[in-house]
Design a protein that fits this description.
Number of strands: 11
Shape: globular
Low-confidence stretches: 53-59
Strand content: 15-25%
Largest sheet: 6 strands, parallel
Radius of gyration: 22 Å
Strand order of the largest sheet: 2-1-3-4-5-11
Number of helices: 12
Mean pLDDT: 86
Distance between the termini: 51 Å
Structural class: alpha/beta
Length: 299
């Protein structure tokens, strides 16, 4: 079967080949309507168009490949953030595709990180999700391209970190009096410590990694309101306490898991993916300032 070309997409949509090229290569200097962009992307997907990355790299001096490393949570019986990472990855892949980039993802074993497969590829940039600082440094020395950390706290100006201020979302819920915040356990100990340090006198923060751990925490707090990070953990918590005591910070677009009476606020995963992708592209294009952290907070 003949491999689809830009000309085939242009014919399908009824636009010029140049317009198709501008859209699929993420050229922001051309004024093209969102409707036309959508039609071009849909046609490219429908025709199974695959850009010639080797040829494009000769012109741009870029491979058009971004590496994403997701660290497994082996000792965590409730690896909810791993699920979040995969959903975030899906959104990042979708967005970067509109900018002419492909994503190469790899799971990293927390105890024995093996980077052989991904190191063999010519990457333009790397995203690393929810990684411990020591493991991160072991990984980072393997790459010479820009690296961004997601959901990690690291006091090193050489690396840009994107984190979510979950406590700002909890406070936005206007929970009265004292309440507890339940967050699925992270791999990054420094970020968990930072979140606890940022809590105020009205907040007790716990990181949950098992049902046993959850039950123990709930048994200590029989009257307080509960703010839960993630729809999955919120659904589990609702099995054990009155739903009117629960508020959920939704992070995965899975609000259908929650009962109607459960109060909620949303961290937009699509906006998070776009923010991460745009930051990485700026680093790849060397259009950035030395800023340690980008914090996503409640408006």
């Amino acid at each position: 079967m003949k491999r689809p070309t830009l000309k085939d997409i242009a014919k399908e949509v009824g636009v010029s080949v140049a317009t198709v090229s501008y859209v699929l290569n993420g050229n922001t200097k051309q004024s093209i309507s969102e409707e036309t962009k959508d039609k071009i992307i849909q046609a490219a997907n429908r025709l199974n168009y695959v850009p010639n990355l080797a040829a494009r790299s000769l012109v741009k001096r870029k491979s058009g490949l971004v590496g994403v490393l997701i660290v497994k949570q082996k000792q965590n019986k409730m690896p909810i953030f791993t699920n979040h990472n995969y959903r975030l990855l899906e959104k990042i892949e979708e967005y970067l595709a509109t900018k002419g980039y492909h994503v190469l993802s790899s799971n990293i074993n927390l105890d024995e990180p093996n980077l052989d497969i991904i190191k063999q590829r010519d990457l333009d940039g790397v995203l690393i999700f929810n990684v411990d600082n020591k493991i991160f440094y072991d990984i980072s020395i393997k790459f010479t391209v820009p690296i961004l950390l997601i959901d990690a706290y690291l006091d090193d100006i050489l690396f840009h970190k994107i984190i979510v201020d979950y406590l700002s979302y909890a406070r936005k819920l206007n929970v009265d009096k004292k309440y507890i915040v339940l967050i699925p356990k992270l791999n990054n100990e420094h970020l968990m410590e930072k979140i606890k340090q940022d809590s105020n006198d009205n907040e007790d923060v716990y990181f949950i990694d098992s049902i046993e751990n959850l039950k123990e925490v709930l048994s200590k707090h029989l009257n307080e309101k509960i703010v839960v990070v993630s729809e999955e953990l919120g659904s589990v918590v609702s099995r054990y306490i009155d739903k009117n005591r629960i508020s959920v910070i939704c992070i995965n677009n899975e609000e259908y898991l929650l009962d109607e009476e459960v109060q909620r606020i949303k961290v937009d995963i699509e906006e998070k993916a776009k923010l991460i992708s745009d930051l990485l592209l700026r680093y790849i294009d060397k259009d950035y300032k030395y800023v340690q952290y980008t914090v996503i907070g409640a408006e």
